[in-house]
Structure formats: structure tokens, C-alpha cells
Amino acid sequence: MHLHVINPNTTASMTATIGEAARRIAAPGTEIVATQPAHGPVSIESHFDEAISAVGVLEEVLSGEREGADAYVIACFGDPGLMAARELTRAPVIGIAEAAFHMAALISTRFSIVTTLGRTGIIAEHLLEQYGFRHHCRRVRAAEIPVLDLEENGTMALERIIDECRRARDEDNIGAIVLGCGGMADLTEKISQAVGLPVVEGVTAAVKLAEAVVDLGLGTSKHGDLAFPRPKAFTGQFEHLSDMTPTDRKNPKHKSAP
Ligand code: 2AL
Description:
Number of strands: 8
Helix content: 40-55%
Radius of gyration: 18 Å
Distance between the termini: 20 Å
Strand content: 5-15%
Number of domains: 2
Bound molecules: 1-(2,5-dioxo-2,5-dihydro-1H-imidazol-4-yl)urea
Strand order of the largest sheet: 2-1-3-4
């Protein structure tokens, strides 16, 4: 299967980290294509960054449809554009926050999230509410590191994340930790070893869930709110999206899905 992993920020080195983590965990028959939008923020750390990045995610899904992707992963912990992306395809689209919540709830009754900056914690809180995981999560914590510090040496990012994970372990009465950033995809094992608790990381969880959905012969439902958007005129910089019909967007591999 062709799994298109979209890093919603435009930092190519982070896309490479995410793509490598996805490839390490993917089944032998899964081909990982990791991309990032051509336009948008270099990191996503605010509601503003997230709103802009969602447009880039949707452009990547439209390009994935032309290339015949079997499934998509949105690899930012705010799951930007997730519902809109599902409208554009019959393939499954999995957000890394929702994947991590599902996976953590399967192996623990309570978990805490350790994310990058405190100000992005509210985005995770909103997603916990929206997805129905509020009662599974004890606390959303932040290591107070900017996202791009994960890409650079000498920032002490790993050490600060490990310190915060240890505090979560000692103070939150939890069974597992969820890592709250796509850029942490390569840190899972180190953190898990240092902390001694199961650590769930969204990119890898999402890859396995995407494979499971495809293996089950399932795809995004086209009944109800996730049906293809109604064709209409778009103006200005979005004119190229005008009057797209479902056929324009249809992924031939999913033709038979009801
Ligand atoms: C993220 C993420 O996963 N990628 C990014 O640029 N910002 N979210 C976060 N909470 O750090």
C-alpha cells in the first residue's frame, strides 16, 4: 500500500525524521511517501499557524489523490485539516493526535500528554474533548521547547522532554505517556527507556492504524458529513479549487468502496 505521510509544517528536515520513523514501523508491503506543503509555517505552535497549515495539508491530500495514495497520516499533533481532508478522499486519513489517544487508551486507563510549548496545550485539550478522550487524559504537560529545537543539536530538547515525562510519571498517576509533537517521532525509544513507562508516539501509532484500516478493507465513509464537498466557485488564490467534482478527486484504487 501507498501511505502518504504529510508533515503539515514546511521544515524538510522534520519531514525526513517523520518519514524515517514511519518507514521503520511500517509493514513490509507499505511504501511511505513523506511530504510537506509548499507554503506555510516552518513550525506549528499557535492557532494561527494551524489554520494556515491546514490549507497546505489539503493541497497535499489533493496531490496524493492524483498519485493514488491508499491512506494518509497528518503528522502534526493538532491534526490540522483532518475533517476537511477526509471530505476529499475515500482513503482513510489518520491524525497523529487521534491515533495516539486511541493507542494509549488501549494500553492504559489514564495517560498524560507531554507536548512542546505550554500555549499549544490548549489545542490538545480541545482535541481530547472533540474525540471523547477527556477522561482518559490526566494532564497535558509541556517541556517548554519551541518545535524547531527538536531539529537542532545543543538545545537540550530531549533532556527537557525526559524531565517532564518523569514528572508526569511521578505526579499524575498514569499508565502511559503520549508524546505531543510530530517532531518527536524519533525519540520514543530513548524516552521510554529513560522513563520506564509505555510511551505512545503519534506518527508510528497512525501508520499502524492506517495499515489496519486498509487491511480491513475500510475507507473514509462518503455518507453524511464526510461526503465530497459540493463543487462551487472559489475566488482569488483558491480559484484552482473551483468546480472540482468528486470524479476529479477520486482515487481509482478506492472506486469500489461504498
Ligand atoms: C506541532 C507538531 O506536531 N508539529 C509542529 O510543527 N507543531 N505541534 C506541537 N504541539 O508541537
